[in-house]
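Morning. Coffee machine broken again, so started the prediction first thing and wrote up yesterday's gels while waiting. Chain of 71 residues, entered below exactly as on the submission form.
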Amino acid sequence: MGLVDKWRGRAKQAAGDLTGSAATRREGVQEERSAEAREEAARAEEHAERKRREASELSSDPERHGPPERP
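Came back before lunch.
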């Protein structure tokens, strides 16, 4: 949904510019920023999940040595 929300926000910004409505433009900016924040949070959660799996693998395999492999 993030991409659709970003496009919707940009469309509202453009509509606000065309109609001279500062409120519509602000609403579009807010929607776009909100979508970007949700995408960033999802990326952070994916990163955290990878780290949790990595930690779990390390703790379950005491014979493993060296730094973890990077994807």
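Residues 48 and 56 are 12 Å apart (CA to CA). Going to sketch it on the whiteboard this afternoon.
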